[in-house]
Design goal:
The protein has 102 residues and is mostly helical. It has helices spanning 3-17, 21-42, 50-94, 98-101. It folds into two domains: 1-46; 49-102. The longest helix is centred in the last third of the chain and has 45 residues, at 50-94.
Length: 102
Amino acid sequence: MNRDEMLARLIAQAASSGGDLVTLRAIVEEASELGAERVLSRMGLDDEKAHEDLSELRQLLAAWRDAKRSAWKAAIDWLVRGSLALLLVGLAFRFGLSDFLR
């Protein structure tokens, strides 16, 4: 018996018996699992390799985040170094040390 049939029988049982708590919980559980299976199927993640695919995607995302973090760090590092270099050149001109710059 597949999930669709199980859910239909549970709903029929709830309609005929007034729907006790156990039946209602079973309906919710079956409907949730059926919905999850449909979503995974629509996303193309219903095969045996889905777990491996998701693992690879997580690794790829982690690598992307590391690369992005490293790029920002490098950009800020270069910005700070450039600012310090400009400050030193400005101080050299201020104190009349422009001959050393040539």
